[in-house]
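Cross-check.
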Amino acid sequence: MPIKKTVFLAMAFAALAPLISGGVANAQDKVIKIGQLGVMSGPAASWGLVNRYAAEAHAAMINAGGGWDVDGEKYRIEIVSIDDRNDPRTAIAGAERLIYQEGVKYIIGTNVDDTTQAILPTLATGGAFAVSYGHTRSLFETPNDNTGLGNIAGYQMSPIIYKFLVEDRGIKSVSFIARNDLNGLGNRDAGVEAAKALNLEIMSSNATYEAGTTDFFPVLSPLVRANPDMIVLSGVAPSDAGLLIRAARELGYGGIISTETAHDAAVLSEIAGEAANGFISQGGASTPEIRTPYVEEFMENYTKVAGEWNDEAGTKIYALEMILQTISAAGAEALTDVEAFKAAIPEVDLENPFVIGGEPRLRWVGADWFGHPRQVSVPVVVNAFQDGAFETLVVTSVE
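Predicted model, tokenized:
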């Protein structure tokens, strides 16, 4: 080989070396692979994408700090993401790929009840554990021991939102509209139960729409004519929320519109604009009043990965942290044995690195809801959308 060419190649490799060592694992690196399985295309895409970007941003911070310690050894965190397209069959295929091809034992996702329900047998057979964002209680109750709830369920959120609105806004009547799937209908039923407990007049609870709907005027018109104090969009996906809000306002509805799910301010601004002002939803647990400098750093890293900040990422940062903290509590055995991981769940009890003052503590909760601790202790935040951003209304806990 000519000398000049040899020198050129050597210089090129030297220039690339820092990039390789920083972004690609050396052969000797110890690695913990974490799967991320969720909806990253279609109307609900932001739910899965925020999981992905949060996991990637958080993993990058951990890796930059030298990795994650398990029994005195450092491990690099690698996130493997798969789009389930909000389809149960695709979710099953994705879970099988993560477990059997990628060797993943821990998965973040899926995002809704239908896809979480679909992968339960795969998790049990493959010996894997998922932090899920489906809400139905049975998903986390024995014998479904290989799942944990990663955020606040609708049946936990609805009573908090409605109680605030009764006391602060004086609402007395409510109507519900739900997407016709397990997630939407389950959230609607929980909302109806919460409304009854507060003695709210339920003017309508049977309005539904199908996936892919873009014209919401026919289904919303009867609700608007009845003019309840509040219309609840049960289990609504981010892009559907904007269309529903805009349609309701164009039909002349002037009351409160709310949901128990979390949303993206940028999506609401793009689709509904000023019509979304006053929209009340679940917040992202990263409000300025409670977030630590670590969360501020995470927000910067998330923005680099995703291109913009999404308030919901303040909730999604918890999944990877809880998985890794539980592995550390169990020891290296949990890297390959999910049973060791599950046995260590009650032992995790740490100061919360994401909340000023460290409370609520970082641990698994939910025993009163599911019969055993299978819920990440994410703070409960209620937000109102206003002029392109969220304003905090309530900060509390499910306990």
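The chain has two domains: 23-152+288-378, 154-286+383-396. The two ends are 70 Å apart (CA to CA). Passed to J.P. for a second look.
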